[in-house]
Amino acid sequence: MGVVEDVRQVLQDFIAPELREIRGILTAIDKRLDGQDKRLDGIEEANRIRYESVVQRLEQIQQSFAFDKRITDLEGKKRRSA
Length: 82
What we know:
By secondary structure, the chain is mainly α. It contains one helix and no strands. It is rod-shaped and about 115 Å long. The model has no long low-confidence stretch (mean pLDDT 89).
């Protein structure tokens, strides 16, 4: 059992600390990525609001054109009937 215990001790002495360090690095990277995700979510929300504003304005413009067309059609009918 001496060899097995020696191998176990080597693993605990050299590999375990390296694995803990790697785990710490990965945790730090994960936190940074979470921060980036939150920042991007904020940008996405701002873009969504802008997009909805543009769509709303385009709908208003479209409605005004439709209104103008109806007036033009009514004026044309009025001229023809007069």
